[in-house]
Amino acid sequence: MTHLHITAWALALILLIVSYALYKKGSKAGKIVHMIVRLDYLLILYSGGDLFAQYAAMDFPQLGELIVKIIAGLWAITAIEMILVKTSKSKPAGSFWIQFIIALIITIVLGFVRLPLSV
Ligand code: HEM
After folding, report:
1. Which residue, by CA, sits nearest to atom 22 of ligand 1?
2. If you take atom 12 of ligand 1, which residue's CA is the nearest one?
3. 77 neighbors 13 (Cβ within 8 angstroms)
4. What is the DSSP letter of 61?
5. How remote is the CA of residue 110 from the centroid of ligand 1, in Å?
6. Number of neighbouring beta carbons within 10 Å of residue 48
7. Confidence of residue 23 (pLDDT cuts 50, 70, 90)
8. Which residues contact 24 (CB under 8 A, 6 or more apart)?
9. How many CB atoms lie within 10 A of CB 90?
10. Which burial class, exposed, middle or buried, applies to 34 when counting CB atoms under 10 A from its CB (0-12, 13-18, 19+)?
11. Is the pLDDT assigned to residue 34 strictly greater than 90?
């Protein structure tokens, strides 16, 4: 399930860039890729939920850090969605890019460096 989680969020990063670039070019395909990104959120949530169940079975070690990890993960997804919604309306998305980078760094550092489940 760790592999699915990593694949799901890595795919979201790639599709974020593709959809953003297509929206910027004014192409209608940006909307299609945006819909695929939305389906991918479900995969991130599903695999994250499954990892949470595995984690619960270990009696919640480092629970504080896990709570921050989950909130930052949800924040990253929200930021991705806001970047694409703003860009689709030709509005500036700079503040959401900054939030996205911060949330992404927090999730990756906590996920890979601090939390116990690994690849
Ligand atoms: C774009 C958003 C996200 C990113 C970049 C991300 C990244 C990561 C990374 C790098 C790991 C460590 C993988 C490993 O070493 O096994 C991880 C684990 C995990 N993630 Fe996420 N994640 C995201 C969203 C979420 C969400 C929304 C949830 C909650 C529903 C979630 C729940 C978990 C859990 C429970 C773990 C296991 C923690 C552990 O290693 O002990 N993640 N995530």
Report:
1. 73
2. 111
3. no
4. T
5. 8
6. 21
7. very high
8. 87
9. 10
10. buried
11. yes
